[in-house]
Design goal:
Elements lengths: L27 E3 L5 E3 L53 E8 L2 E8 L4 H12 L6 E2 L2 E2 L6 E4 L24 E2 L3 E4 L12 E4 L3 E2 L8 E7 L1 H9 L15 E9 L1
Antiparallel strand pairs: 1-2, 3-4, 3-13, 4-12, 5-13, 6-7, 7-10, 8-11, 9-10, 9-12
Length: 251
């Protein structure tokens, strides 16, 4: 993967993201008649007591009538190290991603991917994801909406990295999957995450961390995907969508 972590299909830009201020890139080989390199980009947090984290943020629009996407923060926060896995181990959470196109609710697998979920919850609580654009939409072979980089460039991250957890053994990422993006090496997860809106195969030998699934609001992602990408901006969604904030609670 390149420094812009994200999947890539037939030589196109891959999906990925960096966990540091320095860019990181995700590379994925997509099995087909021809080998294709794919790349993808990145991720969310919780209170120390495991309860609800962050303040509730309301969405500003609905699919088909999205509100304005706010400008990204000038200087995203950076952190020294990933939070302890104990903050999420053995626990499932529910997170609500408020966007300008409506809410997306996800279940987080703290029991299966404790480091990833602990990080996601921590970053959500710290406001790291507030007003962050979903900067990449892939529409051929790989079907994901990529978010989690406050800079909107696909190269931003939280300042720390961690390894892969709970990758699928068959390389299949079903519709509704919430997973992490990373660089070429497996220990390069950061803040960028992707939501799969149509069954996708990413047969990378190290896989990508599946840390949750969409339980409500999939119509938001579907609507953005239906609008396609902006012709003048590569894989940037034609319908701008930003995460306004994330609220996490223990289930």
């Amino acid at each position: 993967m390149s420094n812009t972590q994200h999947p890539q299909h037939n030589g196109s830009t891959s999906v990925g993201g960096s966990n540091k201020a320095t860019p990181a890139v995700v590379a994925i080989v997509v099995a087909a008649c021809i080998a294709a390199i794919v790349a993808i980009a990145f991720l969310l947090p919780q209170d120390d007591d495991g309860g609800a984290s962050g303040e509730a943020v309301g969405s500003t629009g609905t699919p088909g009538d999205c509100g304005d996407a706010p400008p990204p923060p000038a200087e995203p926060q950076q952190f020294g190290e990933a939070p302890a896995t104990a903050k999420a181990e053995g626990t499932t959470f529910e997170a609500v991603l408020a966007t300008n196109c409506g809410d997306i609710t996800v279940e987080l697998y703290g029991d299966k991917a404790p480091q990833t979920v602990a990080s996601f919850n921590f970053l959500s609580q710290e406001g790291f994801y507030d007003d962050s654009p979903c900067h990449r939409l892939t529409t051929s072979g790989i079907f994901v909406l990529q978010c989690g980089d406050p800079t909107g460039t696909g190269q931003g991250g939280p300042g720390y990295e961690f390894g892969v957890e709970n990758p699928p053994t068959d390389g299949i990422y079903p519709t509704g999957t919430l997973a992490m993006a990373r660089g070429q090496e497996p220990n390069t997860n950061g803040s960028q995450f992707f939501i799969v809106y149509d069954d996708t195969e990413l047969p990378d030998p190290n896989g990508y961390s599946i840390f949750g699934k969409v339980t409500a609001g999939m119509e938001v992602v579907d609507y953005v995907a239906e609008q396609g990408v902006a012709a003048e901006a590569g894989e940037q969604p034609a319908q701008p969508i930003s995460v306004l904030g994330i609220t996490v609670s223990e289930k």
